[in-house]
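Hi W., the 2-oxoglutaric acid complex you wanted:
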Amino acid sequence: MANPAQVVHFHRHGYAILPGVLNSAEIGFLKDDCDQLFNHCSLEKDIVTDMGCIIEPFSSGLVDIEPHDWELLKENSDIFRRIRADMGSECVPDILLDKMAKLAADFLPISSEIYLLNEQYIIKPPYKGPGTQFAWHKDSEYLPSELWSEPTVSCWVALDDVHKDNGTLILDPYPTSTDHSGTSLSLDEYIEHHTRADSSYPPSQVGSSLLTEPTRKPIVSIPAGSVVIMSGWVRHCSLANRSSHLRRCWMPQYASRRLTHKRPPNEKGVTKFLRTSDTEEPLGGRGSTKPTLFEESFHLN
Ligand SMILES: O=C(O)CCC(=O)C(=O)O
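Structure:
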């Protein structure tokens, strides 16, 4: 579904922006699903201060599943689909496990299997200001350190039009990276290429959580239904929602490797599921991480 130029751009810069991936019906299903989770969580918690703007469907409490079982659930596609559909919209599992997984496969190493790593909504209520900003980070940083060189992609899907006033993303493209005219990288080539690009960020920026530097980085301004595909190694942050409307994004994340062997391989493009090895930590989630406040001296241009 991605075109070759988008894949080349992704390998060069660490991200690609794909307009018009979801149609209006699909956007509607995801918004309904998101709103249902938001309403459920809002009964007991403050989405911004308690949840860092992040709702992960399986840990939201909407279904009564022990944390230990969330990952096990992913081992059985039929059960996973049924439970996920029961949480909100019936169409969401198809978008999650078919459409988006196939799209993510275009940005992962050739011939690799595709695993669902994590799924989350990132919801910014209106007029919430600095509490809804996300500090500079790389999504790989949220994996256990032994998995930092695993290829992963985050599919950041705008469910509302996003722009600089309602809490959009700012991307920090790889500072240097070799060009890849080809779109198909083997697992080894992929890891070699992207980890080298990752290491080209200046040391002062690595791990910096405050947005102190003035920036001319790309500020994402895209209509609902568009997707920003981000490598796990690309640095990014996001702005506050200063608008009068809710800003909703959906971000499934996919990985290219099975971490524990559970089932025979499926055909490429069919979503399989990644399981944490022995750790109790869910991979990729940031539900417990509160966004760090940015310095007010942040420049947009
Ligand atoms: O949606 C946002 O504002 C930022 C999300 C983000 O950077 C992330 O979840 O990694």
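The helical segments are 4-13, 24-42, 67-73, 77-87, 92-105, 187-198.

W.
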